[in-house]
Amino acid sequence: MLMDKKKWLMDSIERKSGLYADISDRIWGYAETRFDVKKSADLYIGFLKNEGFEVVRGIAGMEHAFVAAFGSGKPVIGVLAEYDALANMSQAADIAEKCILEAGANGHGCGHNALGAGSLAGAVGIKDLMAEFGLKGTVKLYGCPAEETGYGKAFMARNGDFQGVDAFLTWHPMDVTEVWGKSSLAVLQMHFDFRGVSSHAGAAPELGRSALDAAELMNIGVNFLREHIIDDARIHYAFTDAGGLSANVVQAAASLHYLIRAPKQDQVKAIYERVLKIAKGAAMMTETEVNIRWDSACANYIVNRSLAKAMHENMKSVFPLPFTGEELKYEGQFFETLSEEMRKTLHTRAKSMFPSGSREFIDNTAGKALNDELGELVFSDKPMTGSTDVADPSWLAPTAQLNVACMPHGTPPHSWQWVATGKSSVVHKGLIAAGKVIAMTALDILEDMKLLEDAKREHMDNLGGEQYVCMIPEDVMPG
Predict the structure, then answer these.
(1) Is 120 left (phi over 0), alpha (psi -120 to 50) or beta?
(2) Which part of the chain is the Peptidase M20 dimerisation domain (predicted)?
(3) Considering the domain 2-184+300-463 in this protein, what is its CATH number?
(4) Mind listing the pLDDT tens digit for each residue in 414-434?
């Protein structure tokens, strides 16, 4: 009976596949960033209301964040959708070379146009099945702005919007197909604004107090700090204001943007306290002032093996996807744009995805323009090098996430290649496949109470008595 329902689910999602592909393409065209995602949210909310969901918009202080619910009672399954793009990533679709459509414009360089549409397909799919078969439970689709920077889900977690959810499911477009089996890095973002006194750098330098000097001294201090932090931690920075264009002026203003990453939140906080001291010391040395502004922060992802295993089993009935010769040729154009250095890393990637694979299989996989193989289920204690705000809900309930290979093999996220291929039929097939896996895993949770019990027990064990605390101070609002 369960397999019959899963077949029904897949057929139901397939029948609406054109609608989901169209939504993905329209979001690709909107290419809205951070919290300013009105058109994208409008599109989702209109569709969800027509599908019978009850929608609440404007949660956690974010005008374009929403939660759409269907059903009643337990279990409550949360599906996470994203739809924010990246700044300055304008790129023409389907052209295998860098071709900017509009200078300074945005682009979907991380596939969130497809991510949101695939999550939508999964949520609507399980809703349709619940209505058809009279299943008890609740499905909630969370519309989450600002995953790239701003971390909307962290604000939602802080606000209590995820309370009562029993499990979270989501996915991400990628160049490989696998279930997440490792944690992510916690991250904190800050701005440091230095203010001094301007003066003529030649005639009266003694009267000036250089904010630019203060910023540079901070960077130097942090550079020395890097030797004294844990190996898995990272500190990134960028000048957002270097003062001005005239070298003969003592710069009265300078600003820095800092990111601090580490495997655990307490490690991030400890490094942050040391960075604060360096910033204040730089201001003291230069007789300037420093204003410290929070941007955002997110936690480290908590892997749930019980849910991951269930998700991986469902992937076996969906992958590999039936790509055509034309689609493989299309992806090959973008694969050819990879540098030799980037191609060399594919063998390492293939070995990590298929630890039991033969050398011939690894070589074959690494050389594919589109890696359509379903990766083995691999768990690792070593975290991935990136961060995601999916981590915050993962502290609150068991969470599972899959990657689907619908981007050219070897091309990195946040690249022009991802923008260029974002409206392709390969991406459309990928998002529909992700929706099917999400819906089938949601069905497992609805029908198999032992799965949910095991996942919750594991979740509590993973936390080890530690409670989720959002790193973002209460007085810091999205923006």
Answers:
(1) alpha
(2) 188-280
(3) 3.40.630.10
(4) 999 999 999 999 999 999 999
